[in-house]
From TrEMBL:
Stored InterPro entries: ARM-like, ARM-type_fold, ARM_PUB, PUB22/23/24-like, RING-Ubox_PUB, Ubox_domain, Znf_RING/FYVE/PHD
Pathway the protein takes part in: Protein modification; protein ubiquitination
Primary role: Functions as an E3 ubiquitin ligase.
Pfam families hit by this protein: ARM_PUB, U-box
Reactions performed catalytically: S-ubiquitinyl-[E2 ubiquitin-conjugating enzyme]-L-cysteine + [acceptor protein]-L-lysine = [E2 ubiquitin-conjugating enzyme]-L-cysteine + N(6)-ubiquitinyl-[acceptor protein]-L-lysine
The protein's enzyme class: transferase
Originating species: Sorghum bicolor (Sorghum)
Highest taxon above the source species: Eukaryota
Identification of the protein by name: U-box domain-containing protein
Signal peptide start and end residues: none
Residues covered by the U-box domain: 5-80
One GO BP: protein ubiquitination
The entry's keywords: Transferase, Ubl conjugation pathway
């Protein structure tokens, strides 16, 4: 059974975590020792974080009574056989005071966590929250928290931004009015900031928000004008490169696909400039089917611009990584791989190394095999053109198989 939610008194006002070693400062406020020592000695602060009063003394007095009470609560909670409800149903008439309280309280993280639990899977509460201006409140809270975090006023302020984003992610965000509110800078700028530097869970929440507004916006409405797309793409590529979480990588690919679908020319070239082709190529060898298909689709889009084709040709493993997916991952992956190789080798004059790599990696043999098994006329046409155009180059190699040499003659 789940452990009951700890009383707010037991939570450190800085970290919002259960206190292990509670100590009290001269203002009478109690913090966890590790958090308040970081506040004083790592960040050089001279104020009480909760009251912002300037402190004349930095003495920390152990709060033994509170520590014993927390210990007793932990023993009771862990041995309890039944869980305590985390919250009651969010009553509509209480929403105005709840929203006002979130903006007023210095303990916003705890308030937002409780709000999220109350609204989780409660569609009526979510609708009421939106109707009473909840999205606007979250926007103001996130904007303020992000500003304080960037200014170094409160090193824990970004946690507020993350938790507000988590609340926002619980909402459907499917109607035009809600989407318009989220698209405003006070929401979008903090959401993108969370994608860039939030925790793993908060990044998932932020990308869920982007996915929802993208789906609600449709193809006719671009949600990116209020966003620094270059910074967003760079952050998503860093997530893919880190590979720390399969779920994060999957969400990052979804957002990248949406951004590149809405981008042309200079934006795609900028994505190439910050290393998109390199990251996607290096993602392919260990990718599962779904990741491989989306990575190949992104490569196809990027290789439609000259910068993308050049970056692909200059990567030593690009051709072999793409060729390896043919006839191995899925029918869709094979078709996308052929499109990528066709763009690089037929839509422009390819580097000789690209053609060498296609032969050495087995890509040429797979192109010939695809002509026999592929049902897509477009893919067969691209494979045939690759073989017709570059067949004379490949035939000159002594290692080129005799049966393939004869087939190329027949193809021509």
């Amino acid at each position: 059974m789940a452990m009951e939610e700890p009383p707010q008194l037991f939570l450190c006002p800085i970290s919002m975590e259960l206190m292990e070693d509670p100590v009290t400062v001269s203002t009478g406020v109690t913090y966890d020792r590790r958090s308040i020592e970081r506040w004083f000695f790592k960040y050089g602060k001279t104020t009480c974080p909760a009251t912002m009063q300037r402190l004349n003394s930095f003495d920390l007095t152990p709060n033994h009574t509170l520590k014993r009470v927390i210990s007793t609560w932990l023993d009771r909670a862990s041995s309890s056989s039944s869980s305590t409800p985390l919250c009651t149903k969010l009553a509509r008439e209480k929403l105005p005071s709840v929203l006002a309280g979130i903006e007023a309280t210095p303990f916003k993280v705890t308030a937002l966590k409780n709000l999220r639990r109350c609204m989780d899977e409660d569609v009526a509460a979510q609708q009421d929250f939106v109707a009473y201006g909840g999205i606007q409140v979250l926007g103001r809270v996130m904007t303020q928290a992000l500003a304080e975090s960037c200014a170094g006023v409160d090193f824990s302020a970004f946690r507020t931004c993350e938790e507000a984003g988590a609340v926002l992610a619980t909402l459907p965000l499917s109607d035009d009015a809600s989407v318009e509110l989220v698209l405003k800078p006070e929401c979008m700028k903090p959401v993108v900031a969370v994608v860039q530097r939030g925790s793993a869970d908060s990044r998932l929440h932020a990308m869920a928000i982007l996915a929802k507004i993208s789906g609600a916006s449709g193809a006719d409405r671009d949600w990116t004008p209020g966003v620094d797309v270059d910074d967003l793409v760079k952050s998503l590529l860093e997530l893919l490169s880190d590979g720390a979480s399969a779920k994060l990588s999957s969400r990052a690919l979804d957002v990248l696909l949406d951004v590149t679908a809405r981008s042309r020319g200079a934006r795609r070239a900028k994505a190439v400039e910050v290393g998109a082709v390199c990251v996607l190529v290096e993602l392919l060898p260990d990718a599962d089917r779904r990741v491989a298909e989306r990575a190949l689709l992104l490569l196809k889009r990027l290789c439609k611009c000259p910068e993308g084709r050049l970056a692909f040709a200059e990567h030593a493993l690009a051709v072999s990584a793409v060729a390896r997916t043919m006839l191995r991952v899925s029918v869709l992956a094979s078709r996308l791989a052929v499109s990528v190789l066709w763009l690089v080798a037929c839509s422009a004059t390819p580097a000789e190394r690209v053609l060498d790599d296609m032969l050495v990696s087995g890509g040429v043999g797979k192109l010939l095999a695809l002509l026999q098994v592929e049902n897509s006329a477009s893919t067969k046409e691209k494979a045939a053109k690759l073989l017709r155009v570059h067949g004379p180059f490949w035939r000159q190699y002594p290692c080129f198989p005799t049966d393939l040499r004869d087939y190329l003659k027949f193809l021509n």
